[in-house]
Amino acid sequence: MHKLAKLSTVGKIYNKNMIRIIKPILKFFVKSNAVKSLVIGLLEDYAASTETDIDNELVKLVKEKLWPVT
Fold first, then answer.
1. pTM above the 0.70 mark?
2. By the number of CB atoms within 10 A of the CB, which of 1, 33, 36, 52 ranks highest?
3. 62 near 39, Cβ under 8 Å?
4. Which residues, other chains included, contact 40 with Cβ-Cβ below 8 Å and sequence gap of 6+?
5. What is the pLDDT of residues 10-58, one digit of tens each?
6. If you count DSSP H runs as helices and E runs as strands, how many of each does the chain have, helices first?
7. C-alpha dihedral over 6, 10, 15, 20, to 10 degrees?
């Protein structure tokens, strides 16, 4: 059990460091249309895999916020 706790701690530290590295990169690219399209595509795929309608509404809202109609 003690080894498992150590592995869990190592994993948490690793994840925290990875997020620290990846987050600025994502923030840099997030404004590009390619990344916006990727996010929408992932959300649409997820929404299609569920039986509820609320996630479809959330995808619609995210689309409207990423690409506002002016």
1. no
2. 36
3. yes
4. 59, 62, 63, 66
5. 667 777 888 888 888 878 887 788 888 988 999 999 999 999 999 999 9
6. 3, 0
7. 130
